[in-house]
Each structure stands twice: as structure tokens, then as C-alpha cells.
Amino acid sequence: MSEAALANSPNAFDLRRIGAHPDHWYPLCWSDELKPGKTLGRRFAGEPVVLYRSSGGRAFALEDRCAHRQVPLHMGVVCGEQLKCHYHGWSYDGSGACVDVPYLGRDRLPNGVKAYPVHEIDNLLFVFPGNPALADARRPATLGAFANKAYKTRQLNREVACHYTFMHENLFDMNHQFMHRRQMGAIKAMCLGRQHGDNWAQVEYSFSRQGGRQSAGERVIVDLMRSRQQKKGDFSDHMRIRTDYPYQSLKVWVGRDIDADKDDPVLSVWLGYTPLDAEQRSNRTFGYLSVKKPPVPGLIHAVWPFVTRFTENIFREDKEIVEYEQRAYEAQGGDWNNEVFPPIRDLREVLARCGKTT
User: Fold this and answer.
1) 5 part of a folded domain
2) What is the dihedral of CA 21, 22, 23, 28, to 10 degrees?
3) From the DSSP assignment, how many helices (H) and strands (E) are in the chain?
4) Which of 59, 279, 304, 322 satisfies CB 3.0 to 4.6 Å to 166 for a cystine?
């Protein structure tokens, strides 16, 4: 942002120029996308990464450029735990070392390529683009409720043409429920409180219906878990949204006397945002949406199409609006968002503090 633009902007800094910090784990693909003996070309913030899996199932990640002619290594061939370049057959091991140049032999090997730590958990494959010495201590242990058999889970997967910080803000601010009125009717969110620390921010809400009707998908998510007494209207729902940099989570509980620190939520969402281009104006969003199974065996599978339709409509509307925010940012040449909601101001400070200036 220019000095003149900054002088008239409501913001003291341009959050959209803060990059996702590389010293964290970022998802690049679903584990089952990477087949044994195959490669995938992916990106992190403009840097090309090749993922490949040995015939034994082990995954590796290297810079997606051959050290020889800089052509993409994802065009190559997997041989055991090595990757052979498609162009001249130069071979690299999982550490990125060049281990064979067919027409020179192994005595005069050139330098190799950059390698990235890899971590697979809950059917997602992560890489660590930053300082590898920090990788082990920052491994994610679990992704939401994916591994919990008490829940049914669906993948969330889409490319979104916006800076990843717009994604954090959109989820964190439930005052935008007006936008979802066709899906949920007239919903009023009430902020119950907010907390934040050096690398996290949290906000909690309750909701009341001001008019309109629930969609079938919304009823499945929350009403199947209510008791008969709660269904008569003697209830209040509770939502907690949290950013633990660089990830986000959302949880919903139904009923009175809920202890959000001990009771299982009826809805659990985990999200990770991987920037794609060098300017980080686009991201691939990976996530899991998990719904608590009701007591009736098999019921959740019968009603699951309603959950899918409802959540897809919500995410479609969110994707559209954050992409409009990105277009406004580009047209105005800076971050002119006039943010007045205290939890979002907390969140912006966390994202600015934890991110990396581009």
C-alpha cells in the first residue's frame, strides 16, 4: 500500500501483504490422490513441489525442478524410492540428492534439489516448506473429528481466488449469517466472548432464529441430537471458532448446560489454507466437516445427502463473497476493510504477528 493510500485507509498495515509463514505444515493433497509409484505436481506460495510415492507406500516431497535443465520432476518416473527425471534420466533420492546421472556415472554427481519434510495424517499429506529443524515439534496430531468413529465426515476441498486471511476472517465472523438467509432463514448471532494469545484467537457465539425456516441439512446437523424437551424450544446453541495458526476449527453444541471444554460437539470442522501463487492471492482450502451420529443406527447415512447439499450451498456463498473481497482489494490497491468487530480485530493481529511479510 502506498503512503498516500495508507494515510486514508482505516488500517495501519496491509494484512493482504502478510504471507503464510513457511515454518508450519501445509496440506498439499489428499493421501489417496498420491498412488504408489506415481507423482503429483503441487505449489506452495508459488514454489513448485513434486510429491511422489514409492512402491512401498512412502511419500516424498522435492522441489519440482530438475537441477539439470529445470524441467518439472513431476513428469518423471518413480524407481523404488528414487525419482528419475523425464528429460535425461537424472535420479534423485528422497533427500533431494542427485544419486545418478546415467551418462556420467556416480563419481561426478552434481548438486541435487531441495527436499521438504512430509507428514501424513488423517488422509492428508502435509509438507513443511520452512526450517526443517522446526518440523517435528509442529506436526499436527489430529485433524478435527476425522478419526472419531462417533462422527460421519466429509472432505472440504476447493480452490479459492483470495488471500488466505480472507478465509480466516470469513469463518470467524458469524455476523455474516444474513448472507446465508436462503439456506438458514433469518439468524441472529450473539457474541458470547472472545480470547486470544500470541498465535491463536477464539470467539464464541449463540444464535436465535428471527424468521424463516431451517433447511433439511441444518435440521440434520443440529436437531437430530436434541432431546424431546430441547425440541420444544428450551435450548440454546453454542458455537466456538478458533484459529490456531495456521489452521482453523469450528464446533457447535446444542442444548442447555453445555460444557464446551468437555462435551462432544454435534458439528466439528477443521480447515487448512494452502497459498498457491507467489502473491498468495489464491489458496486451496482443505478441510473436514464431521457430524455427530444420532442414536438410530444408519440414520446419518440416509440423511447425509441433505448435509452435503446444505454445506455445499453455504461454502459456495462464502467462496463467492471472499473472492469479491479479493477483487475489491486489487481494484483499490490496498486493504480498505473498515473492520469494527473486536474479535476480527484480535484475529487480524494474530495473523499479522504469525505471518511473514512478503
Assistant:
1) no
2) 120
3) 7, 20
4) 322
